[in-house]
From TrEMBL:
Name under which the protein is recorded: ABC transporter
PROSITE patterns cross-referenced by the UniProt entry: ABC_TRANSPORTER_2 (PS50893)
Domain of life: Bacteria
SMART domains (alphabetical): AAA
GO annotation terms (biological process): D-alanine transmembrane transport; L-alanine transport; L-isoleucine import across plasma membrane; L-valine import across plasma membrane
GO molecular function term, any single one: ATP hydrolysis activity
Keywords: Amino-acid transport, ATP-binding, Nucleotide-binding, Transport
Pfam families reported in the protein's UniProt record: ABC_tran (PF00005), BCA_ABC_TP_C (PF12399)
Family note: Belongs to the ABC transporter superfamily.
Length: 272
C-alpha cells in the first residue's frame, strides 16, 4: 500500500465567527490524483490555503512527508523571522490559483525564473559577487524554465508578455511555474475554470502526464465533474466546511450524502 504524502488531521479554520472548515481530515496518497469537490462556499479554497501555507489553521495539523522527513505546515509558516509560505514551497508543495496570478507585465520565461528564486537558497551577497554557485543555479533555473515550457507546449511563447497569452495558455503557464519549484505535491485550484472543452481535454492529459512522467502527486479543486471523474483516483467531498464523503470516484458518485449536497436536499430525500 502506498504511503500518504500529505495528512490533514482535524483541521478547523475560523474567520472571526465564520467556520470555513470544521474538523477536516483526509490523506493524499503518493502518486494519486486526489480531487477536492463540493458546492460553492464548501470550504475547498480555505483548506487549500491552509495546506499551501497561506493560512495557519485555527486547529489541527497538516503534515507533508518530504525526503524522509515530516514537515508540519503550521510550524513552517510560523518559524521565527524566516517563516512563511515560501518554506512550504521549499518543502515540496506548489500551487496554482483560482484566479490566475501571473506577473502579466513580465515575459513568460521571467515568470518561471521568479518562481525559482523563491525556492533557491541564494542570498544577496552571492548575487552581488556572482559566485560560481550563484551562476550555476541561474543556469539551472533557465534550463528548468525552458524544460517546463516544452512540457506545457509553450516554447513558442517564451518571450511574449504573460498577460498577452490566450487564457488557456496562461493556465498552463501557471502549472509550468508551479512545476519549476520541483514540487512533490502540486495543488491546482480550479484549473479548468474558464477553459473551453478542447482546452479542458488538453488539461486533463497534462495533469495525467505530470503524475505518470514526473512522479508527482496531485491535489485538485475542480467544479467540472467530467474532468474530475476522468482523472481522479480519490475524491474528498466537502459541504458546509466538513468532509461528507471520501473514496473512489464511483463510491463518491453513489453516496447519497453527496447527491443530497449537490441537489440541495436532505439525505433522507435522496434515499427515499
Ligand atoms: N478570508 C475570509 N474571511 C471571511 N470568510 C471567509 C474568508 N475566506 C473564506 N471565507 C468563508 O468561508 C467559507 C468557505 O469559503 P471557500 O472560499 O473556502 O469555499 P469554496 O468551497 O472554495 O467555494 P467556491 O467553490 O465558491 O470557490 C465561505 O462561507 C466564505 O465566505
Amino acid at each position: 500500500m502506498r504511503d500518504a504524502v500529505l495528512e490533514v488531521e482535524n483541521v478547523t479554520m475560523r474567520f472571526g465567527g465564520i467556520v470555513a472548515n470544521r474538523n477536516v481530515s483526509f490523506k493524499v496518497k503518493q502518486g494519486d490524483i486526489t480531487a477536492l469537490i463540493g458546492p460553492n462556499g464548501a470550504g475547498k479554497t480555505t483548506i487549500f490555503n491552509c495546506i499551501t501555507g497561506f493560512y495557519r489553521a485555527s486547529e489541527g495539523r497538516i503534515v507533508l512527508q518530504s525526503n524522509g522527513r515530516s514537515c508540519n505546515i503550521g510550524d513552517l509558516i510560523t518559524k521565527p523571522i524566516v517563516g512563511g509560505s515560501h518554506l512550504v514551497t521549499r518543502a515540496g508543495i506548489a500551487r496554482t490559483f483560482q484566479n490566475i496570478r501571473l506577473f502579466k507585465e513580465m515575459s513568460v520565461v521571467e515568470n518561471l525564473l521568479i518562481a525559482q528564486h523563491l525556492a533557491t537558497t541564494n542570498n544577496l551577497l552571492s548575487g552581488i559577487f556572482k559566485t560560481p554557485r550563484f551562476r550555476r543555479t541561474e543556469v539551472e533555473a533557465i534550463d528548468r524554465a525552458y524544460y517546463w515550457l516544452g512540457q506545457m507546449n509553450l516554447l513558442e511563447d517564451a518571450n511574449r508578455l504573460a498577460g498577452q497569452l490566450p487564457y488557456g495558455r496562461q493556465r498552463r503557464l501557471e502549472i509550468a511555474r508551479a512545476m519549476c519549484t520541483s514540487p512533490k505535491l502540486i495543488c491546482l485550484d480550479e484549473p479548468a475554470a474558464g477553459l473551453n472543452p478542447s482546452e479542458t481535454r488538453e488539461l486533463s492529459q497534462v495533469i495525467r502526464r505530470l503524475r505518470s512522467d514526473h512522479d508527482l502527486t496531485v491535489l485538485v479543486i475542480e467544479h467540472d465533474m467530467g474532468l474530475v471523474m476522468s482523472i481522479a483516483d480519490h475524491i474528498v467531498v466537502l459541504d458546509h466546511g466538513e468532509v461528507i464523503s471520501d473514496g473512489t470516484p464511483s463510491e463518491v458518485a453513489n453516496d447519497p450524502a453527496v447527491i443530497a449536497a449537490y441537489l440541495g436536499v436532505s439525505e433522507e430525500e435522496v434515499t427515499a
